């Protein structure tokens, strides 16, 4: 009855690294000290940071409704604030090796294709760059905004590119599981505003990416049917979008969910990677329909149809050239656990098979994380709509 939810539970058991982020690091809320969330000082190459005035409150900025000078808005890329989970995490997750599968993104072969980070793991759930990296490039930034846990907020303002709060395994409904939620990430931004590190007026021309992959659906409750669960999750996402706008965020983009029936954790058992299994799409289809309906009339909000683009790439129609000749393996993952039923996972020593050419694969691992090549193909197809929504005229090569 709940095939998609049951399959997600299977994913949690077999590939915990990809859907569970039960981090030992405390998550900042309204009462946490921001400084405790920092991993280490991060040197980013965006032309410096904006220094803050060290004030205790940022309320004075709310009264400053004067627009920025026309030249500054024209020449300066918009800041990007990222919220979400595995799809956009660039290093916020815990790297403690004792966590096993839950910190596998910090171990080889993760990062093997990432020339920007010396082909080493950087906390991204891929062999290289992820969605937030390409979103930043579309917006004209040389690099993605740094992870929230990296920068020293006591001495510097936020990076010119913005800030990434996303952490792998995050949920949107607080009672879904112990650990971080997207609401906690909004609280982290609110804390920075309260402490004068982020100015509300700086958010007016900024962009928020909400990259949610559906982790809540991996924790079904016995007394909830699918429709009830979808309604709860979509309501929470809509409240999160409203919260960002209340803080002054200029524009917000929200991902649709990728069809679960196309992800390797399911197609491995049902079709041997030969095709998507549409019987597994019930929950993701319901979510995407409800999300579109709920946000249809929201101003300055774009539902980013990641799902339709992924479907067109992994199951192209006859004669389609989407993805070109480069993507030869559309459903089989590049990094495949030797025996996932026994707890093997990508990144566990001598417990996975690795392809020779990840640039030819769409999926990186069994959990359905795209490769760098996969994310690049997705964001190339979404670049036009994103540029139109954000009013960007300069085409960046991804």
TrEMBL record:
Biased composition (Acidic residues): 56-66
Extent of the signal sequence: 1-23
Single GO BP term: lipid metabolic process
Alphabetic keyword roster: Hydrolase, Lipid metabolism, Signal
Basic residues bias (residue ranges): 37-52
MF (Gene Ontology): hydrolase activity
Region Disordered: start-end pairs: 22-123
Family matches, as InterPro entries: GDSL (IPR001087), SGNH_hydro_sf (IPR036514)
Family: Belongs to the 'GDSL' lipolytic enzyme family.
Identification of the protein by name: SGNH hydrolase-type esterase domain-containing protein
Organism (species): Urochloa decumbens
